[in-house]
Amino acid sequence: MSMMVELTYRCNQACRHCYIRGMDTSQELPVERFADIFSEAADEGIMFAALSGGEFMLRPDWRAVADRIKSLKLGLRLFTNLTHVDDETADYIADLGPVFIETTMFSGDPAVHDAFVRLPGAFDATVAAVKRLRARGIPVQLKHEVSEDTWPTFESLAKLADDLGTVFAHTIYIGPNLVGRPDPYEVRPSDETVRAYFEWKYNGAKKPRNVVEKDVCGDESAERRRMGRVVTCMTGRNSAIIGPDGTMYACALLRVPFGNVADAPFGEVWRSEAAERFRGYENQRAPECENCEYDAICQRCPGYSLLEDGGIERRSIEHCRIAGIEAEVIEKLTGVKVS
Q1: Buried-most residue among 277, 315, 322, 327 (CB within 10 A)?
Q2: Is 190 exposed, middle or buried (0-12, 13-18, 19+ CB in 10 A)?
Q3: Packed helices 122-135 and 110-117: angle between N→C axes, nearest 10 degrees
Q4: Which DSSP state fits 299?
């Protein structure tokens, strides 16, 4: 079991595709409560912890939470843009024990990256931090969501990740904004860019050795998609996310509230009526996806369905679009028709 805590929605970057832009940044639990939540979660069997944001390092007290996680001997992931990681912070992170860093970049060209995150100097700060962390033996995953504006420099970013000794995890999907802002739609890749991406993906000879396709939900999620399930992952069953105000959700995009841990123990919210009702979707099939010819390759996410298409049981129009293009590319390059 794993749990992610978003310590804050505040961020020093203003990424053009940001899914939490517009969220309320005024409500944040005290650090003592966040630390206690991890202790309660550990008692419930949580083995892996993650800190995220926003940019969680904007909270000067974040280390108190990390120290508690270390004392509990939980595996730890840090989701950060790394712009606040100097040598002293890198030393501290190295001392936390088993830790894995995930950061997102948008181009191997500093000007393109800085323009996308709307923070001058961000590229240089992030790259310098990656070098500090790698020098201390800390594994780093460099993530990338392909956008219309950044696709022309995609391969330069893959090379940069290889040069830095990081894994390069990429995806063609840009998720919707949680409060309905149009920002992500303005940078989603066009059909032509999606087609070019899949032509690159299926030309393995071009790929650096460190490149992996990003599927944050893992192999079990892929199997559930093939089964046509409404909820295509194990979120809400073996994982959860807690927002800055203490509300527990199924996951980052699937914002089905289970309750709030501000005044209730973790276990009580984890086993709440709302949580159990959500888990009732586990074996239900998505009726609009029955007998779809793209079922074998579709990466439908119920979070997209909820935010964009009217309900978690609905098909995701964005995933339908991308799966259709991927099928065309597969047939063009291999002669095999997806079915």
Answers
A1: 322
A2: exposed
A3: 110
A4: -
Handedness of CA 235, 239, 245, 247 (dihedral sign): positive
Using DSSP, state whether 3 is helix, strand or coil: strand
- Inter-residue contact 105 to 126 (CB < 8 Å): yes
Q: How far is 125 from 140, CA to CA, in rounded Å?
A: 15
The DSSP call for residue 182 is S
DSSP symbol at 229: B
What DSSP element (H or E) covers 87? Answer: helix 87-94
Q: What is the pLDDT of residues 25-67, one digit of tens each?
A: 999 999 999 999 999 999 999 999 999 999 999 999 999 999 9
* C-alpha span between 294 and 223 (Å, rounded): 14
116-128 average pLDDT score: 98
Name, in order, each residue with C-beta under 8 angstroms of 74's C-beta and a sequence gap of 6 or more. Answer: 38, 42, 46, 47, 48, 49
Of 333, 238, 338, 257, residue with least CA distance to 297: 338
pTM for this model (two decimals): 0.92
**Tokens coding 297:** 């390759």
